[in-house]
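Reopening this ticket.

The earlier resolution said the output was attached, but the attachment link was broken on my side. Pasting everything inline this time so it's all in one place.
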Amino acid sequence: MLRSLLVASVLCLLCSCKSTPHETVQLGPVSAEHWPETDAAGNLLHCYLLGKESNGPVRICGDGSPAPDRKSYLLEAAVPKPGKFTEDVGEPLPAGWYLLRAISANKADAWSLGRLGDHQWLGNGKALLGINTDKRGTSTVRLLDPEARVERSFDVPLATSEGYVTVVAPDEAGLLLIQKVGVDLLILVRAPLTNPSVETLLVQPAISAGARKLWARGKEARAHHRPFKCDAILLSNISWKGDEPYFEDGRLGPFTPLDEAAQ
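Inline output:
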């Protein structure tokens, strides 16, 4: 009996027996089979098979979280080391950001977003804001509609550093993007959920009351050759009147429409 079991085990290894059914997990609205794998550095990496029985299954590895309304799932994908997942299921999607949605009960969609940068959900999951800055100093503001699978993007020149802090107006009438380091450039997005438009403000040499007060906050840092950083105290002094931002009760604008700023 023991000999028979040993022979069967050896035959199973030689024939690359398929693994037992994998745990089914929920990625927001999407059901998936889960494989624990590792990346090139040996760290745990979660791999998933979505829409297994469909004509377009999705193979993807990485970590993410559901949108606030749980109608989509934002995942940052990575590439695993060759293992059971690649052997049994196939090669996963390339590294990058993806929005996963259920098309039907048995089929899923993976929308490739590429590089996303700083990002946050708006409108309880109605839109996803992303912003990143390239080496040329151009910041791209992206507004993505997961349900319609539509993207609006705006290229903003003149960025002196990468990374923004987002301040959202009441009722999300507007968004103010403030550079984390330097606080030189402000980007205002009006009506981000309906009909977005982008305007910019160079804090120096702007002469509005709010801009002068904001620039004065960095006087000590600049005097000691330290970077002026956007912090919680600075953010606490931002207020709104409709879609117009204020700093210490002084209006920051007027802002310049993006098409005029690029001229």
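Reporter confirms the inline version is readable. The first strand starts at residue 24 and ends at 27. Confidence is low (pLDDT under 50) at residues 1-20.
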